[in-house]
Design brief:
With about 240 residues, this protein is of the alpha/beta class. The protein is built from 11 helices and 9 strands. α1 crosses α11, α7 packs parallel to α11 and α9 runs parallel beside α10. The chain binds adenosine-5-diphosphoribose.
């Protein structure tokens, strides 16, 4: 299966990657739906929805502050680094990620499309005010207040029931439409519309390579399925590509 994947990459014209929480699992960041997944221990509707934030902004910020602390200790792993190497070699054109941890950018990937936002970016919860800022560490005071209008600040991530950032979504759809191969790594494919990305490539006649430790909603349409940890599989692929 590794040889099949390597040959497919070698003979493809426009290769992109689509990633989920599984690629960051080996950097110590919990996934959402696995055996120790976040949604096993917390209720998404209590923490990752606009209603939850309106009801109890302090609780939501305590959860994000905890996630920021976990992510601040995380480093890109061999899988993130392998994708950056493939991009530098001109083999990979874009990384479309559902992750908000910023590890693809830290690993050196340049064309990274963050469909669900970035946990280190905060924005004003007052839609009229367009204050945004990047944090390098969790805010001291929670919930933080907007310096411009005094409303509550919130993480600039996509919550359940919210639309994806239009410019990120459009860019991702353009890349998926242009691609003739998408490497899907570490996602359950459970959340729409993000999980449509691989099917856009497939529907245009493109191929799908999936790397996952188990099956996912994408597996039935994958042309090559590699049952393996991302940090083990991707270095094998870059080695096979002579990188
Ligand atoms: N290597 C490869 N795959 C892995 C690894 C690993 N080391 N560890 C876990 N996985 C796989 C799991 O088998 C699972 O299929 O990663 C996937 C993680 O799935 P989820 O936890 O559902 O994460 P994701 O698909 O990114 O969730 C999508 O849901 O809660 C929302 O906004 C959140 O972006 C997230 C979205």
């Amino acid at each position: 299966m590794f040889n099949e994947a390597i040959e497919l990459i070698k003979h493809s014209r426009y290769v992109i990657a689509f990633t989920g929480a599984g690629i960051s699992a080996e950097s110590g960041i919990p996934t959402f739906r696995g055996p120790n997944g976040l949604w096993r221990r917390f209720r998404a509707e209590d923490l990752a929805t606009p209603e939850a934030f309106a009801r109890n902004p302090t609780l939501v910020w305590e959860w994000y502050k905890w996630r920021m602390k976990v992510i601040s200790r995380a480093k890109p792993n061999a899988a993130h680094l392998a994708l950056a190497k493939m991009e530098a070699a001109g083999i990979l054109r874009a990384v479309i990620t559902q992750n908000v941890d910023g590890l693809h950018t830290s690993a050196g990937s340049r064309n990274v499309i963050e469909l669900h936002g970035n946990i280190w970016r905060i924005k004003c919860s007052n839609s009229i005010c367009n204050f945004k800022s990047m944090l390098s560490e969790p805010p001291e005071e929670i919930p933080p207040k907007c310096p411009r209008c005094g409303s509550l600040l919130r993480p600039d991530v996509v919550w359940f029931g919210e639309p994806l950032p239009p410019e990120a979504w459009e860019k991702a759809v353009t890349e998926a439409s242009r691609a003739d191969l998408v490497i899907v790594i570490g996602t359950s494919g459970a959340v729409m519309p993000a999980a449509l990305i691989p099917t856009i490539t497939k529907d245009k006649g493109g191929k799908i390579i999936e790397i996952n430790i188990g099956g996912s909603a994408i597996t039935p349409i994958a042309d090559v399925f590699i049952k393996c940890r991302a940090s083990e599989a991707l270095p094998k692929i870059t080695e096979g590509l002579g990188l």
